[in-house]
Amino acid sequence: MSKKIGLVSFILLLIGLAAWLIYSSNNKSSTVNLVSEYSDVVKQSASAPTALKPESVPDISLTAMLRAGIYTNQGVLQSESINLVNIEGRRLMLNGQPLQVQAVSEIELIKAFELGNQQIVLFGFNQGGNQCGIQYQMLSITESTSSTSKVFGSCLQLTSVMESGNEIILSMPQNNPYLGADVLVNYKYSNGQIYEQAKLTKQQLKQKYANLSATKILQVASADGCYVDGIMLDDNSCGNGRKYCVMFKNLTRPVKNADYKLLKSFCTN
Fold first, then answer.
1. To 10 degrees, the CA torsion angle through 259, 260, 263, 268?
2. What is the largest CA-CA distance in the chain?
3. Which residue, 122, 77, 81, 69, is CA-closest to 97?
């Protein structure tokens, strides 16, 4: 009898061990138990330039690495949960000390760089409110210092991030309803500082729309759902038509046909 009990116990033990191994395997991709090396974070950033628009989700995301911790020249960099006036938020910690990076949302690690003796990390987060979906901040770490940039961005998603010598150039739409989402604003990160580069001048706007005509503008408005059955829509969803009026007012040699007259009437009333 005792042998049978021992055999049953052994079989149950094997079944339990197999179940644990299956569970562990299924959850391996969604958990990070170890602090990551900074070089591994940089490699994952480089393997997905697409960190802004990923075609596939990696087993361990950069943001998950940040939650678990990343070894840097100044110690472990990690995001932790905090209470912000009865709202759960997150903040960054470096070697156990809080940094000037906190948000009411998850702090996303977007990209990591190594420029000279600097480890530079780009973060994105939501500061709360309905008017701004995402803002950005950068952190520079050397063996002796660390510094955070000012918060920056147009409240829209980044479209590109590029290294240029010892600088980083970041681009995103200007978030200007007069111009549309295809007009970008660039930010330059250099020596620990963020600089907004010049926006389009009036002359550049004229060059941008030089090949347009009133008819082409109405075709753009129609594709946007803002020109329907011969009527220009001026509601909020169409930005009150300001995008098309900017195009119209910067035409260089317009043909004054019926489409021109329609836009002229719409944009001057």
1. -150
2. 103
3. 77
pLDDT tens, residue by residue, 40-56: 999 988 865 444 444 44
Compute the radius of gyration of the chain from its Cα atoms.
27
Exposure b/e, 184-210, CB count within 10 A at least 16 = b: bbbbebeebebeeeeebeeeebeebbe
CA distances from 113 to 58, 71, 109, 131 (A): 19, 14, 11, 30
Taking CB atoms within 8 Å and a gap of at least 24, the contacts of 113-117 are: 113/42, 113/45, 113/163, 113/168, 114/38, 114/42, 115/163, 115/166, 115/168, 116/166, 117/142, 117/143
Q: How confident is the model at residue 4 (pLDDT cuts 50, 70, 90)?
A: low
Average pLDDT of span 194-221: 83
Element (H, E) at 215: helix 214-223
Give the DSSP H/E element, type plus range, for residue 148.
strand 146-148
